[in-house]
Structures are given as C-alpha cells and as structure tokens.
Write a structure and sequence with these properties.
Shape: globular
Radius of gyration: 14 Å
Pfam family, one: DHquinase_II
Keywords: Amino-acid biosynthesis, Aromatic amino acid biosynthesis, Lyase
Strand order of the largest sheet: 2-1-3-4-5
Helix content: 40-55%
Distance between the termini: 14 Å
CATH architecture: 3-Layer(aba) Sandwich
Subunit structure: Homododecamer.
Strand content: 15-25%
Number of domains: 1
Bound molecules: 1,3,4-trihydroxy-5-OXO-cyclohexanecarboxylic acid
Organism: Sporobacter termitidis DSM 10068
Pathway: Metabolic intermediate biosynthesis; chorismate biosynthesis; chorismate from D-erythrose 4-phosphate and phosphoenolpyruvate: step 3/7
Structural class: alpha/beta
C-alpha cells in the first residue's frame, strides 16, 4: 500500500514559522517522523510539499492509478482552493485532511475548509501525531474497502 503525504504552503517553514502555534520542530523533523511512522505502520510513502496550488493539483492528478491513499495538509489553501477540492473529486482516491493546529479554534477565516467534502476524515490540532493517525486510518479504510 502506498500513501502520498502532501503538505501545502509554508509547511516547509515549520520550526521558524509561528512556533507558538506550530511548534519548534522543522519540516525535516516532520519528514523523519513520517518515515518512522510509515515503517511502523507497514505502508510505503511518497512525500511532497509545495507552496503552489497548481503543483498540488498536479501531484493529486499524478497520483491517479499509482497511490492508494492521500494524507493532505493543504495549509492556507484549505480555506480557498476549489481547484484542490476538484482534483480530489476527480481522482476519487481516499484522502484524510490533516492540520497541525485546530483551524476551528483560530480566526474565523480558517473555519471554512473547501477540501473537507472530498475527504473521508479530518484530523486537526494533534501536531505531527495527526499525520500518523491519518496513515493508520487510511490503512484500515483501504484494507476494508478492498475486502
Ligand atoms: C494549517 C492551518 C491553516 O489554517 C494554515 O493556513 C496553515 C497550517 C495547520 O496545519 O494547522 O498553513 O493547515
């Protein structure tokens, strides 16, 4: 089983970026965490980060036929991107929406998620652990769907 983890804009700035909200660990720390979690969970991983909406649409389209599930933190595009929503709907790959912080307890403009309706689950406010929870959820979800 291959999962694709997509991180959107400014997630590459973790560590430097608003550490009071996102913590002091860096994007490289997140990649190490994801690789370790995948090994433990027995899944293969593709890792992708971009600051560009179009590049995120492109990788979702690329995933069709190659990837079993998507763990997606669209970052700020969560609250703006109908293009990412449409790409997820186009490929119909099970996806879990993940946020390090909990956008629902932050500014009102973060309360709306356009991608949510194309995702099988949303996990927010659990930091790095949320990505692991998403991987484990997708592993079970995809295994059950194949039965
Ligand atoms: C975020 C929450 C978004 O509102 C914000 O724009 C981000 C990160 C999170 O992981 O908590 O960049 O997706």
């Amino acid at each position: 089983m291959i999962l694709l983890v997509i991180n959107g804009p400014n997630i590459n700035m973790l560590g430097l970026r608003e550490p009071g909200i996102y913590g002091k660990r860096t994007y490289n720390d997140l990649l190490d965490f994801l690789r370790a979690a995948a090994k433990e969970s027995g899944v293969e991983l593709e890792l992708f980060q971009s600051n560009s909406e179009g590049a995120i649409v492109d990788i979702i389209q690329w995933a069709y036929g190659k990837i079993d599930g998507i763990v997606l933190n669209p970052a700020a595009y969560t609250h703006t991107s109908i293009a990412i929503l449409d790409a997820l709907k186009a490929v119909s790959i099970p996806a879990v929406e993940v946020h390090l912080s909990d956008p629902n307890t932050r500014e009102e403009f973060r309360h709306k998620s356009f991608v949510r309706e194309a995702c099988v689950k949303t996990i927010a406010g659990k930091g790095f652990d949320g990505y692991k929870e998403a991987m484990l959820f997708l592993k079970d979800y995809i295994t059950e769907a194949a039965l």
